[in-house]
Amino acid sequence: MVAVTIVVVGLLMWSMCVGWASPVFGADAKASLQDALYRRFQPSRIEIANPAKRGTVTRQGKLLILTMEGVPAKPFRVMRAGPKSSLSHVMEFARVEVSPGGSVQAESGPFRLNKGTRLVVLDVSLKGDRVHLLTHTADPLPGQPGKESIYGCTEFVFDLEPEAVRAGRADLVVDWIDRWLEWTSGERVCAPGSDQICLEP
Q1: Domain range holding 136?
Q2: Which residues, in sequence order, are CB contacts of 128 under 8 Å at separation 6+?
Q3: Measured in Å, how far apart are the chain's first and last C-alpha atoms?
Q4: Sign of the dihedral through C-alpha 78, 41, 38, 168
Q5: Contact predicate 190/197, CB 8 Å
Q6: Cα 48 versus chain centre, distance
Q7: How confident is the model over 137-173, as pLDDT tens digits?
Q8: Contact in structure between 15 and 21 (CB atoms under 8 Å)
Q9: Within 13 Å and on the Cβ side, how many CA atoms surround 108?
Q10: Domain total for the chain?
């Protein structure tokens, strides 16, 4: 990514000298926007193999706080493709799509997340004019004592203005997403019994 940045900056300086249109469009702009989104919404890792800790966050990236009420979620599940296969995450997410005009279309799900629910990002990607955020609740969903912990999975799809994507306007894109998911950096994940060995989100 460093090489790409150097090329883009070099071309931009050259265009300023000869009066050529800014080259920060198309593939270069999308690559720059994807990189900015990844840095803003750093993905986390979750435990899959250990049944006692399945679904817990093992490496925390950016922590998000939901600003919407009643967002659908599907349960976090794992499975084996075969008897000798390792466990893998069943990638089932309740889909919530936000249009540029602010309308929301939400897929039904067995769980509803309350405003203030803490989320971590498992993956962030730019596909066409859409940003996809695959999220996982940072804490188990409220349930009956003694029952197995259940985590919720939701995919947020943000439809973007094509002009913002073509120009690589990460500031506009991030601002739009932040209206729905409030970003916070005020938490750390520390090793048990030690506040000296921590992972900064």
Answers
A1: 2-199
A2: 165
A3: 22
A4: positive
A5: yes
A6: 19
A7: 999 998 756 678 899 999 999 999 999 898 889 998 9
A8: yes
A9: 1
A10: 1
